[in-house]
Batch of 2 targets.
Target 1
Amino acid sequence: MDLNEHVHSEYSDPLKQKFESQAKEVAKTLKAVLKENASMKMDEVTLKQVFGGMRGVKSMVWETSQLDPVDGIRFRGYSIPELKEKLPKAEGDKEPLPEGLFWLMLVGEIPTEEQVSWLSKQWKHRSNVPEHTFKVLDSFPAETHPMTQLSAAIISMQTGSQFSRRYAEGMNKSEYWDPTYEDAMNLIARLPRVAAYIYRRTYHNGDHIAPDLSLDWAANFAHMLGVSDKPDFKSLMRLYLTIHADHEGGNASAHATHLVGSTLSDAYFALAGGMSALAGPLHGLANQEVIKWIFKMVDALGTTNPTKEQIADYVNSTLASGQVIPGYGHAVLRRPDPRFVAQKAFAEEYIKDDDIVNIVWKIFEVVPPILDSLGKVKNPWPNVDAHSGALLVHFGMKEYSFYTVLFGVSRAMGVLASLVWSRALGMPLERPKSVTSAWVLEHISSQKATV
Ligand code: CMX
C-alpha cells in the first residue's frame, strides 16, 4: 500500500459518496431508456462527415460539459461568466477555484466553500509524486519538449494505478468506477508538481521549488513554477486552469482519453493518450504556436507596436506561405471563444499597457475579416489559444514550449471526471466501423443505381 493510499483511506470521501449515489441513479435511468429506445435514430452521417473528421456526428455521451457553436462551453449547464460568479474563490480573489469546477463536473452541483476546501486538502494529501517519476524526467535531455516529458511522467506513475491492480485481482465490473475515481484524484493532485518539475528542469537548471501546502491547487502550482511572486499570477492560474478543463467529448484530447479508457486501460494510460492528442498544433500546441508566431512577427517588423496594416501584411504572408493563423478558427465554435473573452477581460482588469497583450487585441481586429475573405474558413474568430500566451509572457513566462503543459494540467480535470463517469455508466469498448475508399465508391454507385 502506498503512502497516499493510506492517508486517504482514513478520510470519508463526500465527493465519492455523492458521485456513487448519483451515478447509480443515472445508470439505472439510462439502462431503462436505452432498452426502450435502442433503435431510435440520433443522427445521420454524410459522406462529407466521413471524410471530414466526423464533424458534428453525435456518437458519444459526455456528462461534464457541452459546447454550443454560438454560446460556447457550458460546464454542467454553467457558462464561464456564471462559473466566475458562482464557484467558490480563494480569500481576496475574484477568480474561481478549479477545485470547484472539478466538483461541479463530477456531480453536477456548485460546491460550497467547505466542499472546495475539503477537495483542496484531498489533493494535497494525494500530491506525493513517486521518486521514479522524477528519475524518468531527469533522464530526458534538457531540450526534450515539455509535452513529451508530461506524457512520459504520466505513464511512469501508472505503476501506482489502483484500477490496474484491482482488475488484476479480479474486480467486479460494478466497481470499475471506484479505483478509476481514485486514480483520477491521485493524478490530478500530482500534476502541478510534475508540471512544475518539468518547467524548472527545462528552463531553470533544475532549481526546483518545494510545494507550499498552505496554498490551493492552482496557487501552489503558480508558486512551484516560480514565475512571478505577484498575487495576480496566482489569480491567472486559477482562471487558466478552470477555463481549459473541458470542451465536451469530441475534441481530440477528450476523445483520445475516452477511446483509450474504453479498452479498460487505466486513467494513467488514458490521460497519456489524451495528452498526446493535445500536443498537436491544430489542438493544444496552438497556444505555443500563437506566441511563437507573434514573436516572429515582432522580429520581422522590428517593432513591438505594429500598426494594423503591418499586422494584416504579416497575416497575409503567413497565409500565402500555406500556414494557418494559430489561435483562430474552431471545429465547432462560430463566435469568439468565451475562453478568449474571459482572458481578455482578465487582461483588461489586471494588465495595463502590455505590448504583447496590445498586439493580441490588434490581431483580434485584423484577422477575422481576412479569414472571412478566404471564403472557406468556417469560424474566423479567436479560440482559447489566441490570448493565453500573452498573459503568461506578461508575468514573465516566455518559454512558450511549456504552454501546452499548462493546458494539459487543466484538461486532466475534465477528461478524468468524464472517465469516471464512463466507468460508472459501464461504457463499452469504443469501436466504430471503418470502410475503404473503394467501398465508398462502390456504395455511391449502388446508391445512385437504386434511385
Ligand atoms: N488559418 C488559416 N486557415 C484556416 C484557419 C486558420 N486559423 N482555420 C481554418 N482554416 C482553413 C482550414 O485549414 C481549411 O482549409 P483547407 O480546406 O484548405 O484544408 C478551411 O479553412 C476549412 O477549415 P474549417 O472547417 O474552418 O476548420 P476545421 O474544423 O477543419 O479546423 C481548426 C479547425 C481549429 C483545426 C482550424 O481552424 C485551425 O487549423 N486553426 C489554427 C490552429 C488552432 O488555433 N488550433 C487550436 C484550436 C483550439 C484548441 O483545440 O486548442
Target 2
Amino acid sequence: MSHPVIEEAPAAHGDALNLLRAEIAEASDPAEAAQRAVEVLHDRFPHYDWLGIYWVDGADLVLGPWVGPEATEHTRIPIGTGICGAAAASGQTEIIADVDADPRYLACFASTKSEIVVPIFADGSVVGEIDIDGSDANAFDETDGRFLEEVAALLAPLRPRA
Ligand code: SME
C-alpha cells in the first residue's frame, strides 16, 4: 500500500525538532536543556530575532531562558496582560502580523514589528509559552505556529518545579 507524501512543514522544521530532542536529552538539567532549546531555535531560524520562554508562576509569567540582541524589561507579566498574557489566558497561539495595530501589545524592543506566542501545556494547563519577536512585519505564519506547538510539547517537561 502506498500513501502520498504530504510535505506539511519545511524540512528545516523536522531537522530542528530532531536537533532539539538530541540537545534536550544531552543537557545535564532542565534549565540547561531549555537554554539550549532557545539557542537552537534562534540559530536555525533567522526570522526568530528575539526568542524567550516564559514560565507560569502563580498569576504571572516569568521570563526563563532567552536569546536575542537585547534583554527585555518585561521579565514578569501578569497573565491577561499583553499578547503574552493573552495567549497564557486563552491557551491559543497568537500570531500578530503588526504589533503596532494590536492594542494589547506590550512593547519591548523598538525593532519589533511582529510577534508569535505559543502556549506550553502540561496536564491540560498552560505552564509557559514561547514568545518570539520579529523585526519584519508579518514574519510568522501558521507553519511557524504548528512547528512551535511541537516544540512546546518538547519544552513542557522542562518547566521549573517547586
Ligand atoms: N510583547 C510581549 C511582551 C514580551 S516582549 O515581546 C519580550 C507582549 O505583548 O506580551
